[in-house]
Amino acid sequence: MKKSARPQDWVGSFAANGGPRYLQIVGFMEQAISDDRLKPGDRLPPQRQLADRLDVDLTTVTRAYTEARRRHLLEARGAAGSFVAAPKVDLSQVLDLSMNIPPPPAGIDLDDLLRQGVSQVLIHSDADLLMTYHLGGGSSADRAAGAMWLQEPLGRIDESRVLVCPGAQSALAALLLSQTRPGEVILAEPLAYPGLLTAAAQLGRRVVAVGVDGEGMRPDLLVTLARKHQARVVYLNPTLQNPTTHTMPATRRAEIAAVATRLDLRIIEDDPYWRFAAQPPRPLAYYAPRHVFHVSTLSKCLLPGLRTAYVVMPEGQEQEEVLGALRSFVLMSTPLMTALSTQWVHDGTATSLLEGIRNEAWARQELALRTLGDPGLAGSGGIHLWQALPAHWSGQEFVIRAGQAGLNVVSHSSFEVEPGSSGQGSGRGGAAHIRISLGRSRSRFELVNALRRLSELTRRRSMREVVV
To answer: Where is the HTH gntR-type domain (predicted)?
Structure first.
């Protein structure tokens, strides 16, 4: 039997604002397992001994051990005690590194948070109203919540400019439908969010790539292509861009805003990751408030199930055209989820939840960079990484081989505005790349397992070498 792991080897210090202490203890375990300070088979201290060591109630440690077993970090062996669990070998399990969702929040009991939130909504709202049709765009309280949520990036904005939509995808589709005509060109960087490309194709619009340099979309090429195609709309994801993780600096944002003002272009600014960046510049909407539709979704920074996105309309822009387009395919946001989002923004829960998610995202970024050990890996604090593949791999072949090895990733070709367009500009493209999403794994332990398998796969050269 292995020697018991000493608490001082893996237990950290409690943070005053780190959430319930039992979850912080689970976090200590998870971090130590990820860092190999706790190894499979190590015996954890008896619960009462750990409680005395940490100066907490026994029930706190009991809850921590129970939660750790639920996450498959520990296994109980009766009178022998609790031990670090060995990784489960499940050949049918697929580890998903393909979907960009926020990770589980660090130090927050999500079950309790949801129960309390829904309870508060029901106290302050009529259940009948939550289960009936609502006008699109959100109530006054919903719009006020959007203005409050966006005050940090945009400054003080009039709530009358805010529309509440059921997710960013529907907002993007409504903007394309209302601001462009069939066959019209939409300008974007060479690599763009696949949801935008899908919506444009379904609506009969054409997306054309504008070359980039080290700071992002080139203003001179934007002018040239806008005039060539008589384009009126530009799509940009300027902060922690999906997929490259690139953040457009403030000087380039101002230059793009100046072009939009001079040519009377409309910019759709898709900005779901602004709050994950360490010191992000102001959004484009700050520089050109009369020319930018600013889209910010809670699904990428809080919880996908909230299905709530805010669209800040350009100053002086009528809303009915956008709302009419939205109503053509989705009548309204889900009232209960919208009400929960509004409640959480107004009472500060959203900010606390964001802090826990952001801390977990940053911890996973550091963990991934250490695990993969690739100096060329692009990651800047968000919920995904952008990895160049060795020359012997093509993007699509790697995705297929990774799937056969039980790993889901996305190749650069899924983001290309035009076939081969990822090589335009300053070399963000060129070699085959994959996007690695860090939030879907239930724990850091599971994430490390997936990343180690991914790292091993990138070094292999043929199907015969792929180990499932």
So the answer is: 19-87
β-pairing, 309-312 vs 162-165, is antiparallel
- Identify whether 390 is preceded by a cis peptide bond (ω within 30 of 0): no
pTM: 0.84
d(CA 467, CA 91): 11
1: its two tokens: 């039997």
Cα gap 286→305, rounded to integer Å: 29
φ and ψ at residue 139, rounded to 5 degrees: -75, 175
| pLDDT at residue 217, as a whole number | 98
Structure tokens at 441: 């794994």
158-180 pLDDT, tens per residue?
Answer: 999 999 999 999 999 999 999 99
In 80-222, the DSSP E strands lie at: 82-84, 95-96, 162-165, 185-188, 206-209, 212-213, 216-217
pLDDT at 461: 65
| Residue carrying the six token digits 């959100």 | 138
Task: Identify the CA nearest to 354 among candidates 19, 66, 84.
Answer: 19
Q: Specify the residue for token string 């940009």.
A: 236
Q: What letter represents residue 103's amino acid?
A: P
Average pLDDT, the chain: 90
What structural domains does the chain harbor?
7-84 (1.10.10.10), 95-108+355-465 (3.90.1150.10), 110-350 (3.40.640.10)
**Residue type (1 letter), 451:** L
- Residue 463 φ/ψ, nearest 5 degrees: -60, -35
pLDDT at residue 373 in the model: 85
Q: How far is CA 374 from CA 214, 385, 458, in A?
A: 20, 11, 11
Sequence letter at residue 46: P
Lowest mean pLDDT among 143-157, 285-299, 371-385, 421-435: 421-435
Task: Specify the 3-state DSSP secondary structure of 348.
Answer: coil
Residue with tokens 């997936």: 450
Q: Alpha carbon of 281 to those of 96, 119, 277: distances in Å?
A: 31, 37, 9
Structure token digits, residue 64: 């921590």
